Amino acid sequence: MPTFSLVTLNCFGVPAPGTSARLRTLARLLDDHPASVVCLQEVQTRPYCKLLLQATTRYHAAAYEPFIHAPKGGLLTLARARIDGREFVLYRDRGLWYTPALADWLLHKGVLITRLVVHGQSVVVLNTHLTANYMGNWGRGNAYAEQEHAQLMQLAELVQAQPLDALVVVAGDFNIPRGSWLYDSFMAETRLFDPMDGSDEPTLRSRRGLPSRYLAPIDYTLLRVPALRHCHIESNRIFEEPMMLSNGRKAHLSDHVGVEVCVSWG
Questions:
Q1: What is the block-wise mean pLDDT of the chain (266 residues), using blocks of 10 residues?
Q2: Which end of the chain is less crowded, N or C, counting CB atoms within 10 A of the terminal residue's CB?
């Protein structure tokens, strides 16, 4: 059966000891993985982007928006098939520079749109990373939550603008919990399908000093599927366990777990 699969991961590509080893190990694992497309977030330096591009030898195409110190938005999309089009859309509302959201503002967060054809089927991938909620408060009226809502509504506009005959996948680190009013309003606006709907397993790892309210499912692969015969969708979490890194240390690949989705049709 024709199959399209995608992996998304916030790869925690921030400058720190051990980051290069983690990313090099991630690249090796991705090369051995059968995913059609990989969406990465938090690729926060140009050298890390170069490392990933050079080490993922089985992904023959890549999309990113060059910027001063890193890919714009920290977004990198890898594909095994030819990429027919790419576009980066900056979020209009990127937060207040005098708050902790300055880091998000400087990274120029937005949406990386990639278009390709897989087994004759048009596919549009929207890779994104929304502004973080630095208070862990997703209630209505919270400044960070309202900013995330503005970004979600802009993202919804982009989803709705895609051709109706395309398989549309929206993937990335949304920084909002499944089941929140932000999630519900976005899903209602776009009518996307969440193959992991109902799961409350966190995709952000627990670590010392991190309040429990941050531990929520915040990474997604959301779909709009055209009329495909005998369509079957599966999704699961990946990269959950510590790995032996290229520097000989054992550690997790990121502070997030990955999410994989597979769509097959007859």
A1: 97 96 98 97 98 97 96 98 98 82 88 97 98 94 95 98 98 98 98 97 91 94 95 97 95 98 96
A2: C
Q: Do 14 and 43 contact (CB within 8 A), yes or no? A: no
- Show me where the domains of the chain are located: 3-264
13 in Cβ contact with 64 (< 8 Å): no
Write out the CATH class of domain 3-264: alpha beta
- Tell me the one-letter amino acid at 164: L
From CA 137, how far away is CA 139, in angstroms rounded? 6
Looking at residue 209, its amino acid is G
Is the sign of the CA dihedral 96, 100, 106, 109 positive or negative?
negative
Angle (CA) 198-186-149 rounded to 5° is: 120
Under DSSP, the state recorded for 166 is: S
